[in-house]
Specification:
Mean pLDDT: 77
Order of helices and strands: HHH
Number of helices: 3
Structural class: mainly alpha
Strand content: under 5%
Helix content: 40-55%
């Protein structure tokens, strides 16, 4: 997906640093979507990421847990529910 500067909706009151942060966040998101498309998965897929996420949770919390397939696909939301895994 290609965007032009006219496609970005940056608030008029944003200073130069805020505008750069917004542009960087959008760029990172589009890169992730492109990577997912390149390997044939959707952005909402756990394909290839569920076990890596379980490993990260283990490294942080010190306890192993199996991440269920029904867990939220967003890592922040899933991390908030790790006590239920």
């Amino acid at each position: 997906m290609e965007l032009s500067p006219a496609d970005l909706d940056i608030p008029d009151h944003a200073d130069e640093d805020e505008a750069a942060a917004i542009a960087a966040a959008i760029s990172a998101h589009l890169s992730r979507l492109q990577q997912a498309a390149d390997v044939g998965e959707t952005a909402d897929s756990w394909e290839g990421r569920r076990w890596a996420f379980a490993g990260r949770l283990h490294a942080v919390s010190g306890t192993a847990a199996r991440v269920p397939e029904a867990a939220p696909r967003d890592p922040w939301a899933a991390a908030g529910r790790r006590d239920r895994f």
